[in-house]
Amino acid sequence: MSSAPSPVSELDQDLPPTPESPSDAAADLLTLSEASEGSEAPEGAEGSSDPDAAGKPQVARWYAVQVASSCEKKVKATLEQRAVTLGVDNRILEIEIPQTPGVKLKKDGSRQSIEEKVFPGYVLVRMILDEDTMMAVRSTPNVINFVGQEERRATGKARGHIRPRPLSSQEVNRIFKRSAEKKPVVKVDLAEGDQILVTAGPFKDFQGEVIDVSGERSKLKALLSIFGRETPVELEFSQISKQS
Q1: pLDDT per residue as tens digits for the range 92-151
Q2: Rounded-to-10 torsion of CA 77, 130, 139, 153
Q3: Is the pTM of this model over 0.70?
């Protein structure tokens, strides 16, 4: 089982914004799976040497799998082990957690390299879909279900069965290209009302109070006492440290 995603081709169209919450990720991935309904198999997809019951070669496709919050890495490691144990590692070929580089600014002002998940709460699995591989994925601890279309029950109010839908090769390319090209995001452990010390720039050594934090722009606004007046000043995360 390879740990690196399959090669992806260049896209001419712009990429959509990275989802900022599990609910955004769910909507985005469901849109991708719906868009791929009836699409052709991804270029370069690996097939099994054994044909299916109808004599057609089986083709590996990418599927999105919803998992419990913050359990993406645990699910990936467990499913990789289970695939070998259950003898389906020749059909569950890749398990990926699309991520982008990030930087976390600690309270003491030091910076720590981190990885930000593109789709929090989801992993992508390239697999040949059959009863055995579906069961292997669904029965893995902390897995909720595949992303796909719910097949409504004929009677009753119980939820129907989720039919997994593969992602198209174009959408897979888009996801991995987004992971590769996104600029590092700076995260900071700051909130409105926190006290800060400016450590760099024209306001170095000034102290102030945070009034707004913009994680997307890696900036914040703080009230600094300048010439005896409280003045709002915009600062980079890298220019401040949090005071206890």
Answers
A1: 999 999 887 776 666 555 667 777 788 889 999 999 999 999 999 999 999 999 998 877
A2: 140
A3: no
* Domain 190-242 of CATH type 2.30.30.30: yes
Could you say which architecture CATH assigns to the domain 22-186?
2-Layer Sandwich (3.30)
**Selection from 121, 135, 133, 134 nearest residue 28 by Cα:** 121
One-letter amino acid for residue 84 of the chain? V
Which residue shows structure tokens 């839908």? 165
Whole-number Å distance between alpha carbons of 241 and 244:
10
**Structure confidence by residue, pLDDT tens digits, 174-193:** 888 766 665 556 666 778 88
**Structure token digits, residue 181:** 């090209």
Of the candidates 147, 126, 235, the residue with the CA atom closest to the CA atom of residue 190? 235
